[in-house]
Amino acid sequence: DSGVTQTPKHLITATGQRVTLRCSPRSGDLSVYWYQQSLDQGLQFLIQYYNGEERAKGNILERFSAQQFPDLHSELNLSSLELGDSALYFCASSVDPAQETQYFGPGTRLLVL
Amino acid sequence: GDSVTQMEGPVTLSEEAFLTINCTYTATGYPSLFWYVQYPGEGLQLLLKATKADDKGSNKGFEATYRKETTSFHLEKGSVQVSDSAVYFCALTPGGGGNKLTFGTGTQLKVEL
């Protein structure tokens, strides 16, 4: 158990819908990262937050957005969902951006029908 | 941009066999290198890491040496067990501090009795 929690574990929804994935980092970690794992794209970095501020952006679609709240939990919002958004979404955390070890949560499996 | 190349899987071995999973990288500067493992139905776990050239990371019998001259970080284990069956990901973060992880495509390892 890494100490990173993600909810829900599974999510099934329809095209065009909007969903919110939630992540709670390890106690004491200020930096949160989101990754997408899909069969065709592999594991890709989406976005990073540090202490509530966006720190780095990767291959995140405009339909996706994220934020980190004062209690340091983070949410990833996916809207206008398409079939191709079906994937495993991981959250990871680290103490701060200078700490290179990221600890991963168990992931949320999203299925868009 | 940065990239990681891993050998294709699946790799099938008998228990107690020697394991090598090749990993090479392309990056500017001085990246940090990682191996993560994903067991079936679970999230990613950090297996080992190395932060500078000639460093050797080791954990649970697995080892990998950061070779700057060959831009490689091959994973080895002298005697694999059935419980090592998983997907192994090689990854890097850019030099200068923790940031987004760039992953290879993953190599599935199957160990049989």
Description:
The complex is a heterodimer of chains A (113) and B (113). Chain A has 113 residues and is mostly beta strands. Chain A contains no helices and eleven strands. In chain A, strands 2, 4, 5, 6, 9, 10 and 11 form a seven-stranded mixed sheet that branches. In chain A, strands 1-3-8-7 form a four-stranded antiparallel sheet, with no helix packed on it. The N and C termini of chain A lie far apart (31 Å). Chain B has 113 residues and is mainly beta. In chain B, a hairpin with a 5-residue loop joins strand 5 (32-38) and strand 6 (44-50). Chain B is globular.
Tag the structure with descriptive keywords.
heterodimer; A: 113 residues; mainly beta; seven-stranded mixed beta sheet; four-stranded antiparallel beta sheet; 11 strands; 0% helix; globular; B: 113 residues; 50% strand
Compose a concise summary of this entry.
Chain A is mainly beta and 113 residues long. Chain A contains no helices and 11 strands. In chain A, strands 2, 4, 5, 6, 9, 10 and 11 form a 7-stranded mixed sheet that branches.
Radius of gyration of chain A: 13 Å
Which regions of chain A are unreliable across 5 or more consecutive residues at pLDDT < 50? none
Mean pLDDT of chain A: 93
Beta percentage of chain A is: over 45%
Q: Judging from the principal axes of the Cα atoms, what is the shape of chain A?
A: globular
Q: Structural class given helices, strands, pairing of chain A?
A: mainly beta
Oligomer: heterodimer
The parts of chain B where pLDDT drops under 50 for at least 5 residues are none
Q: Mean of the pLDDT scores of chain B? A: 93
For the largest interface, the chains and their residue counts are: A-B, 27 and 22 residues
Question: What is the ordering of alpha helices and beta strands of chain B?
Answer: EEEEEEEEEEEE
Number of helices of chain B: 0
Overall body shape of chain B: globular
User: SSE order of chain A, as H and E?
Assistant: EEEEEEEEEEE
Strand tally of chain A, please? 11
| Rg calc of chain B | 13 Å
Major β-sheet profile of chain A: 7 strands, mixed
Number of helices of chain A: 0
Give the beta-strand count of chain B. Answer: 12
